């Protein structure tokens, strides 16, 4: 909420929110609803699972459902990963295979 207020106060149309799934789940929960509500204001999404900031599928967030929801509501920007893999890097990227093009 504070970031949106700061962006509004700046009075510019080229500043966007970086939506951090990890922190939003801890602070507010209800990720799908807040992403949909803030969609026009989001310029980037980053992810990590809760509670231990590991890759998707290691915590409480239902990432297959959430990522499908993000697609369904029309988000077309970047989604970055900011997590600490539980094992090594290659194992920590296995969750992403179904989402990669090519």
Provide the fold topology:
Elements: H1 2-10, E1 17-20, H2 21-27, H3 31-38, E2 42-47, H4 63-72, E3 79-81, H5 89-92
Parallel strand pairs: 1-2, 2-3
Description:
The chain is of the alpha/beta class and 102 residues long. 37% of the residues lie in helices and 13% in strands. The protein has five helices and three strands. The chain has helices at 2-10, 21-27, 31-38, 63-72, 89-92, and strands spanning 17-20, 42-47, 79-81. It has a three-stranded parallel beta sheet. The chain is globular and about 45 Å long. The mean pLDDT is 94.
Class from helix and strand fractions: alpha/beta
Shape: globular
Radius of gyration: 14 Å
User: Mean pLDDT, nearest integer?
Assistant: 94
Q: Which blocks of ≥5 consecutive residues have pLDDT under 50?
A: none
Q: How widely separated are the two ends? A: 37 Å
Within the largest sheet, what's the order of strands?
1-2-3
The count of DSSP E runs of length 2 or more, i.e. the number of strands, is: 3
Distinctive features:
102 residues, alpha/beta, 13% strand
Describe the structure concisely.
With 102 residues, the chain is α/β, with parallel strands linked by helices. It has helices spanning 2-10, 21-27, 31-38, 63-72, 89-92, and strands at 17-20, 42-47, 79-81.
């Amino acid at each position: 909420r504070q970031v949106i207020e700061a962006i509004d106060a700046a009075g510019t149309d080229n500043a966007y929110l970086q939506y951090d799934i990890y922190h939003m789940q801890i602070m507010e929960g209800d990720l799908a609803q807040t992403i949909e509500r803030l969609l026009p204001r989001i310029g980037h999404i980053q992810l990590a699972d809760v509670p231990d900031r590991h890759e998707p599928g290691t915590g409480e967030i239902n990432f297959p459902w959430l990522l499908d929801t993000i697609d369904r509501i029309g988000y077309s920007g970047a989604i970055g990963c900011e997590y600490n893999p539980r094992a090594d890097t290659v194992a920590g990227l296995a969750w992403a295979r179904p989402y990669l093009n090519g």
